Amino acid sequence: MRKPLIAGNWKMFKTTAEAKAFAESFIKLYISSDVQVAICAPFTQLGALKEAFKE
Q: Is the pTM of this model over 0.85?
């Protein structure tokens, strides 16, 4: 059985701080679920999100 996939995409509508806060709250919701997750963020926020999703 395949896992459902949730993909989130945003353009330039979040600051880096907002993106990091979103990622931290998102992790709490889906880290232990049976769902695959994909985040599609702008290049300018990839460094902050890489740190947030490191684990």
A: no
